[in-house]
Each structure stands twice: as structure tokens, then as C-alpha cells.
Prior knowledge:
The complex is a heterodimer. Chain A has a domain at 1-23 and 46-86: 2-Layer Sandwich (Folate-binding fold), CATH 3.30.2270.10. In chain A, 15% of the residues lie in helices and 36% in strands. Chain A has helices spanning 34-42, 87-91; strands at residues 4-7, 11-14, 19-23, 50-56, 64-70, 76-81. The mean pLDDT of chain A is 91. Chain B contains ten helices and 18 strands. Chain B is of the alpha/beta class. Chain B has helices at 5-13, 41-54, 89-106, 124-139, 149-155, 182-195, 239-244, 308-321, 370-383, 397-400, and strands at 31-37, 59-62, 78-79, 117-121, 145-148, 170-174, 178-179, 199-201, 206-212, 215-221, 224-233, 252-264, 272-274, 281-284, 289-300, 330-341, 347-350, 356-360. Chain B is globular and about 65 Å long. Chain B is 28% helix and 26% strand. Chain B has two domains: 23-81 and 84-107 and 182-251 and 343-415, 3-Layer(bba) Sandwich (FAD/NAD(P)-binding domain), CATH 3.50.50; 117-177 and 254-339, 2-Layer Sandwich (D-Amino Acid Oxidase, Chain A, domain 2). In chain B, strand 13 (272-274) and strand 14 form a beta hairpin. The site of zinc ion (ZN) has 7 residues of chain A, from loops. Zinc ion (ZN) is lined by residues 7, 9-10, 57, 60-61, 63 of chain A.
Amino acid sequence: xxxxxxxxxxxxxxxxxxxxxxxxxxxxxxxxxxxxxxxxxxxxxxxxxxxxxxxxxxxxxxxxxxxxxxxxxxxxxxxxxxxxxxxxxxxx
Amino acid sequence: xxxxxxxxxxxxxxxxxxxxxxxxxxxxxxxxxxxxxxxxxxxxxxxxxxxxxxxxxxxxxxxxxxxxxxxxxxxxxxxxxxxxxxxxxxxxxxxxxxxxxxxxxxxxxxxxxxxxxxxxxxxxxxxxxxxxxxxxxxxxxxxxxxxxxxxxxxxxxxxxxxxxxxxxxxxxxxxxxxxxxxxxxxxxxxxxxxxxxxxxxxxxxxxxxxxxxxxxxxxxxxxxxxxxxxxxxxxxxxxxxxxxxxxxxxxxxxxxxxxxxxxxxxxxxxxxxxxxxxxxxxxxxxxxxxxxxxxxxxxxxxxxxxxxxxxxxxxxxxxxxxxxxxxxxxxxxxxxxxxxxxxxxxxxxxxxxxxxxxxxxxxxxxxxxxxxxxxxxxxxxxxxxxxxxxxxxxxxxxxxxxxxxxxxxxxxxxxx
Lengths: 92, 416
Ligand SMILES: Cc1cc2nc3c(=O)[nH]c(=O)nc-3n(C[C@H](O)[C@H](O)[C@H](O)COP(=O)(O)OP(=O)(O)OC[C@H]3O[C@@H](n4cnc5c(N)ncnc54)[C@H](O)[C@@H]3O)c2cc1C
Ligand SMILES: [Zn+2]
């Protein structure tokens, strides 16, 4: 990643247009155990290498996107709209 | 060899040819009582206090690179103890007291300079927050003064007091805060630990942690297996990677923070000043360069370099605070990788593995903590119980709901 971030809707856009949320994790079901919620809210794999994360195109199309980015080289391998993630995958 | 004015003079007369190296370059032994992973400020300080205060000298510090290559040599050298929360404040004040006696204690010139840290405020609400912080500090026996606009103007007349959006109304000053020569801290602790028998092994990367029946028996390294009775992790920025070798998942993300230094200028700013309205802080080194920085880049990174967007943002914020900065040329910029914890506060604790200890999560404020962190970690390792000022820095506080969230940002590491 230089200073440009690819948005699936707007193309290459300056990084300043985005807000970074962080790890694109799988959200536990509402009634899941406290330990599952603890894991989701507080624990991170924090990998060296490929990483999926939520970015918000705040000053652009205002869509949430999922970037696949390398945490060592900063290269972005893929970018897709967060809604394209199967809902089951995002919610269970 | 003890350093003194006399030894400097004598060696100077001899053409500086007879200085002994400050620490040895030993081969690793096959086994140690304590192995510390990470030869940054915290790892070296831990080794120093283990040997000096707690009589544990069969210790190795394993550093994958060279001493000072990590954050201890990349930070902007600011020390302060202006914390609000009870879990933090006494610890950082202990660290400040250790700074005040450090150079005599380890016989090394670390250029500890209590030149004052001033946090500017720009609104009534911010003044009230700083009043509360200052009062809390004073209740804990820490110095704090609330300055009005005139008092700040007298100190720093060149600030943009009448900035249309963020006029400067005053500031919270901690006079005992200041700066310390960061490399010298690493070198001083390394030398002090080495002279008491600690082996500092550089270019030795820990690549695995050997566990037998839930107990650490040693570490795999780029120089082979080294055994230990106790393993202590102090791998700032890489804590998640090292902890994972023992199967632990931490409440930490690694993020990059950048810093900058300008060309040398005549004396301009004598203390540390932080902008209350934007992401900018600055001090001037004894060489004359302005040392400044801002906020995190905001994305997880292990790259030790940052993004141009942040460079621009820091420059803009700096210029909003000090218009004269627009004429200053930047010489260098760099980045460091830090453990950002989920509440912005550190961890000094045991782990679920009984002879594995963890020192992590120092975020962008761990340099000032170096002496306190080393002392408290050594205390925990030697005595098995937390040092009283560090008792809140528990690994399980997230699960128990006892977060220490100075900024009130919640579990969003890039905002702390
Ligand atoms: C740009 C910047 C500015 C900052 N400014 C300030 C400031 O003004 N004031 C302040 O209080 N704090 C500041 N900080 C934060 C502070 O620098 C850190 O919190 C602190 O230095 C971390 O502790 P350390 O010194 O032990 O880290 P480090 O020096 O990073 O030590 C960790 C060491 O572990 C080693 N290591 C990692 N993995 C392994 C392995 N597998 N095997 C062997 N060794 C390993 C690394 O090579 C490294 O040397 C700043 C940080 C940055 C990046
Ligand atoms: Zn877009």
C-alpha cells in the first residue's frame, strides 16, 4: 500500500478518505458464551502477513469494505464490499 | 570500569584509545535461570534490576537484532507521569522517581532532562478535563500546574494563540516531565546488567518456545536451543508473535507510529509541548533538531515504516500550532512497531503457563515506563507477586472487566 487504497466502487483512492476499523472478525451470535464474546472483542491473532480488515470509505461512497492486506509489505491483495461477505460468515 | 569526569579526562588525554567496550559479546550458555526475550529498554532494564535488586544474575537477554534497534531507539524520548487513572498513576510516578536517580544508579549519562511537559488546551471543556487530571496527579503526590494563556504565552510566544479554530487558552504543565537520551538508556542498562553477570546475546532470534507438560523448558533460537527455568517476554511490537509460540493469543494489535526530526535550529523550544487540538507534539533535542510526531498510521503493521498521509497530517497539525514550522526542513522520519493493547495500558503479569511471564502492550508510551517496567517485571519474576504500583496491569483484566482505559476509547487499539 502506498498512499492509495482500492475501493471496489470508487477505484484507487487516497488513504485519508478512509476510516480503519480493524480485523474483519466473525461476530458471535447474540446468545453466544461470554468467552466467545471476550475472544471477539479483545483477543487478536495479529498476524505477520495476510490480514483481512474492515475499512470504511468515509469521504467517498461511504461503503464498508474488506481489504486483504499484508501487514509486513502493506500490499493490498484484494478489496471487496463488506456486504459481499456471506452474511452467515459475518454473523455466526 | 566506572565512568567519571576523571576517566573522561584521562581517556581524552590518551586519545580515547583505551576505552573498554561497554558490555561483552558472550556465547550463549546451554541453560539460564531466567531468559528474557527482547533486548529493548524493557528487557534490558528487567535484566539489570533482576541482577542488581533481586540477586538473580544467571540471566540471558536474547535480542534478534542489535541492542537499541527496536522502539527504545525509535521513540521521541519523552518522559512524564501525568496519568489520570489509579491503575496507572502510581506506576508512572515510580518510573519518574527511578529516572530521577537513574544516571547515578547505573553510572551512565542518559541525559535525563526534566525540561517540562506542557499539554495545551483550547476550550473550556478541555481546560476542565486538564484541571481534573492535574488535581488527580496532585492527590497522588505528582506535580502539576494549570497555566493560563498569559503564562503559556510567556513560555512560548511563537504559538498560534489566536488560531481561528483552536485558540490556545492555556496548558497543563508537569515540570518534572522532560526528555531522556533513548539510546543511552539501552546502553546504560545493558552495561549495568552485563557487569553484574547477565549475558546479552545479540543477533539471536527466538523462533520457538519449548513446552513440556505445560511448562517452559527453553527456547529455540537462530543460534540453537537454550534452556531456562523461567522465560520472560519483553518483545514490544512483536509480543503477539512471541506469545503465539507458547499458544497464547493476546489482547494486542501491532501498529506503526512515525516520528520526525528537523534540521538543527538555534534554541527554540525548551520543553515538550503537545497540541491539544490535533495530533502533534514536539521538543528540541540538545543538538538543535526538532523532534516531533503525531498519531498512529491506524492500520496493523509490522513494517517499521509509515505512510505519507500521516506525514502530511502531522506537518499540518504542527503548522497549525507553530506557524514558523513551515520554514523548517525535515531531515529524517522513521517508524516503530508497537503493541497497541485493547485499553491502551500495558501488561506486566504471569501467564496461564506457570513459568512464562509477560511484559507487553506498552503502546506509544512505553519509553517513559522503562525503569518502572524493568523494576516491576523483575520484582514479579523474582518474588512471584506483583510490585504494588503495577498490580493493576493484569493480563486477565479484560476478561474480568477491569480495563484501564485512559482515553476512554474502548477496545479499538488504533484509537488509543
Ligand atoms: C515513533 C515512536 C515514538 C515514541 N515516543 C515515545 C515517547 O516519546 N515516550 C514514551 O514514553 N514512549 C514512546 N514510544 C513508545 C516506546 O518507544 C515503546 O513503548 C517502548 O520502547 C517499548 O519497549 P522496549 O524499549 O522494550 O521496545 P523495543 O526496543 O522495541 O524492544 C523489543 C525488542 O524485542 C526484540 N524482539 C522481538 N521479537 C524477538 C524475537 N522473536 N527474538 C528476539 N528478540 C525479539 C526486538 O528486536 C526489539 O529489540 C514511541 C514509540 C515509537 C515507535
Ligand atoms: Zn468507495
